[in-house]
Amino acid sequence: MRIGVLTSGGDCPGLNAVIRSVVHRAVVDHGDEVIGFHDGWKGLLEGDHRTLDLDAVAGILATGGTILGSSRVQPAQLRDGVERAKGHVADLGLDAVIPIGGEGTLKAARLLSDAGLPIVGVPKTIDNDIASTDVTFGFDTAVGVATEALDRLKTTAESHQRVLIVEVMGRHTGWIALHSGMAAGAHAIVVPERPFDIDELTEVVGRRFEAGKRFAIVVVAEGAKPREGSMAFETGATDVYGHERFAGVARQLSDELERRLGKEARPVILGHVQRGGTPTAYDRVLATRFGWHAVEAAHRGDFGKMTALRGTDITLVPLAEAVERLKTVPQERYTEVECVL
Ligand code: F6P
User: Fold this and answer.
1) Has 140 been annotated as catalytic?
2) Which of 92, 126, 131, 234 is paired with 257 by a 20 to 30 Å CA distance?
3) Where, in this chain's numbering, is substrate bound (predicted)?
């Protein structure tokens, strides 16, 4: 069998572990050949690829990023390129293509699958917002990075009696904010699923200082917004991929809380540090299992699906189901945290 693999969209710790696992299972156990496309869908559209053998994946299990490179492709570019992609798959004699990516990549995977390509998707994102899988690899690493940052920020916040507003990733969902905020004992957690009320937030933070505490830590997901009419809020412009570029919720919240509370406040934006570097053991294991199961699905001819974690089992779910909706933080999860807004 000949299998193509690519990584697309924002990178994520664990991508290399999937690539390595695909190559090991396919080449060593099945005697397959594996072709890696460079820079995501772009590589498939342009036929830019290389052979991945055991040497190519040696030593990459614990490395961050992706040895294949990644990029975002606009949906229109992909739609126009379906025939080209099919042509390259046919020319290379590929029996299966394994795209590893997030929401956008899996939507593209569905498009190509509907057009007749033999696709087995592998979900990834630090945001953990892909429906149909309990967890995506990268999330555990990102939460760990954010939690360590929050632990560190507490001591400097206390020294200066400040309010620190820490912005974590999470375009549409607040999973990283919720988990890192819980793990670090943040005093308020603000997520996109629940537009915040600035009066409530001011009260929560203000109460801490009234109780004699010297600092407060607010974790906010980058996609969070105030409730309609709650405060003036500048929204970001949309980029070429149709994604909102955030105007900086932490900066705006920090200015507003400083003004309202009369306490020094500072915004801290963790940004891409949450996506970089070595994956945790949990993410390496999940990524490796996804890679293994994707190859097995390809051998069974189980196409148009994506690997998923359900409980402790890896299963295959239809791409159509996987891209139907995002996995948002459910209400019950908020109620478990005292400080959630
Ligand atoms: O991968 C998802 C994500 O981490 C989002 O949380 C964030 O909005 C986005 O990537 C940032 O991506 P970019 O690399 O385009 O800045």
Assistant:
1) no
2) 126
3) 125-127, 162, 169-171, 222, 266, 272-275
pTM: 0.96
Taking only the tens place, the pLDDT of each residue in 250-295 is 999 999 999 999 999 999 999 999 999 999 999 999 999 999 999 9
Instruction: Tell me the average pLDDT across 130-159.
Output: 97
- Report the complex ipTM: 0.96
| 169 CA → ligand 1 middle, Å | 7
Say if ligand 1 is within 6 A of residue 127 CB: yes
- Tell me: is residue 273 an annotated ligand-binding position: yes
Mean pLDDT, range 220-241, rounded to an integer: 88
CA-176 nearest atom, ligand 1:
6
Q: Which CATH number fits domain 2-138+279-322: 3.40.50.300, 3.40.630.30, 3.40.50.40, 3.40.50.450?
A: 3.40.50.450
CB atoms within 10 A of CB 273: 13
Distance (Å, whole) CA 339 – CA 266: 20
Q: How far is the CA of 105 from the centre of ligand 1 (A)?
A: 13
First to last CA, the chain: 52
pLDDT at 337: 84
DSSP state for residue 25 in the 8-state scheme? I
Cβ contacts of 313 within 8 Å, gap of 6 or more: none
pLDDT at residue 341, rounded to an integer: 63
